[in-house]
Specification:
Distance between the termini: 17 Å
CATH topology: Heat Shock Protein 90
Structural class: alpha+beta
Order of helices and strands: HEHHEEHHHEE
Strand content: 15-25%
CATH class: Alpha Beta
Shape: globular
Strand order of the largest sheet: 1-2-3-5-4
Length: 189
C-alpha cells in the first residue's frame, strides 16, 4: 500500500526542481484535479461499508481542494497545482491534499493584517467567517469543513506554516516543529 501522507509531505517540502510533476497525484490545473476528484467520487459511492456519509466526505475534500486553487491563483510560491491522493481500503481510508501556495496565514493576513502567526491564522480560518478573497462575501469553507469533520466522526490533520490543527470531535491547534510552506490536509475516516 502506498503511504500517501509520506508522499504528500515529500512533495510539499521538496525543492522546486525535485517536485515530481509526473506523479499520478500531481494536479497542475483545476481541470486535472476535478477529473481525479470525480473519479474519487465514483469510487467512494461504490463502497458498501463506508463508515461515513459519502456526500459529506466528498464535500469536505472538495472544499479543501478547491481552496488550494482559489486562494493561490497567481500566488504559487514555485510549483502551481496540488497533490491529491486517496486510499480506500479495508484497513485505511484517507484523502490527502497538499499545495505549495502561500498558506493560511499568507492568505488571511491580507484581509486581517493583525494576525500574529500561523496558529492564530488557523484558528481564525476554522472558526470565523472570513475570506482571503475580499471583498467577496465568502468565508464559510473551513468552518463547514470543521463542522462536518466533527459531526461525521472523521479526523482532519491540517498543517500550514508552523501550525498544525487536529480536528475530530474537538479542535486542537499547536505549533508544528517544521514549517510547511503551503497547506497539507489529511482526512481520515
Amino acid at each position: 500500500m502506498i503511504d500517501l501522507e509520506k508522499l504528500a509531505y515529500q512533495w510539499i517540502t521538496a525543492a522546486p526542481r525535485e517536485v515530481d510533476v509526473n506523479s499520478e497525484y500531481y494536479c497542475q490545473t483545476r481541470d486535472v484535479y476535478q477529473a481525479r476528484y470525480d473519479k474519487m467520487l465514483r469510487e467512494l459511492f461504490k463502497m458498501d461499508d463506508i463508515k461515513g456519509d459519502p456526500y459529506v466526505i466528498s464535500a469536505v475534500a472538495g472544499e479543501i481542494g478547491n481552496n488550494s486553487f482559489d486562494h493561490n491563483i497567481g500566488n504559487w510560491r514555485d510549483v502551481p497545482g496540488i497533490f491529491f491522493g486517496y486510499n480506500f481500503s479495508d484497513d485505511s481510508f484517507a484523502i490527502v491534499i497538499a499545495d505549495r501556495g502561500q498558506g493560511i496565514w499568507g492568505t488571511l493576513k491580507k484581509v486581517k493584517p493583525g494576525l500574529a502567526d500561523d496558529k492564530e491564522a488557523l484558528k481564525v480560518a476554522f472558526t470565523e467567517r472570513i475570506s482571503g478573497r475580499a471583498p467577496e462575501s465568502r468565508g464559510n469553507g473551513l468552518k463547514f469543513v470543521r463542522e462536518n469533520i466533527e459531526s461525521g466522526k472523521m479526523h482532519l490533520t491540517f498543517l500550514s506554516g508552523k501550525a498544525k490543527a487536529e480536528l475530530n470531535d474537538e479542535m486542537v491547534i499547536e505549533e508544528n516543529d517544521e514549517e510547511i510552506r503551503g497547506c497539507l490536509a489529511i482526512i481520515k475516516i
